């Protein structure tokens, strides 16, 4: 005998069935949304040498935001070729991912699942189009990190052992020195060698002082003194310091006299020196001494600047002496005409231009006439 279902029971069963179907539909929509099946998406590609265990369905993140899934993984077409990933990305994030974006495979946590992380790129770059290729970075594997950490610890252990051996050797040497062993130990424990060393040093200093005095005397002894007289100076600083004399000076730029970077007078330079000679003869007396000083700037090496300026000063001196007899002070008398190259050195004595006006690479002709 069949039992009939009442209207209320049938209504309740229908409502229950509709509720179950609604829950199932809601769950299906949620699952589809989680797998980016219902949202508007677009696709990008990325190629890696190895994917390190990443599987289809793996999550894709942009700046930590869940942005899509790994739709498929395509194996390489030949041995050693790249593994290609197809990424399905939320279309709302498309303006963030630029042509210089970078993709890398990372782990969520220490032992978590593999995911793809996208760095968006710079704001100035263009938006990466649908199907575009994202530049990839090699994945960082935990095993590689552990291996590198182990190698670093091994190197630290080796360095610690070497340091320990070195300290042991230093302690042994220090003990031997304290015991008076070896040359250093005897020097530290016996005063006699130290006294002899101090005495020898004192004698050496006295010998060097005597030698300097003898050399200074020799410089003023004929015929050696004539060499220094021809050069016109013993100390280039003192060549410009004449507190007892009046001073007349002219300054000429290097470019007015010489070929570029050389000690060779140009035709125009000889003409300028002819004018200098006429000017000098207006101020010369029998007691006047002449100094030709040449200077360079810091663009030249110090040693090269010394050589160049000395030769330039001597070239000017030779022309003034040879062409205008500026070294003649009368019958059977001559005056000193000094040629001094200062290189990059700036003398303590004020230059022709006390305000610092004028080129660094220059030649100065200075006349000193003693007044006492």
Automatic annotation (TrEMBL):
InterPro entries xrefs: Mce/MlaD (IPR003399), MlaD_Phospholipid_Transporter (IPR052336), OmpA-like (IPR006665), OmpA-like_sf (IPR036737)
Database matches in SUPFAM superfamilies: OmpA-like
Any one GO cellular component localisation term in the record: membrane
Alphabetical UniProt keywords: Membrane
Record flagged with keyword Membrane: yes
PROSITE patterns in UniProt: OMPA_2
Residue stretches making up the OmpA-like domain: 245-371
Protein name: MCE family protein
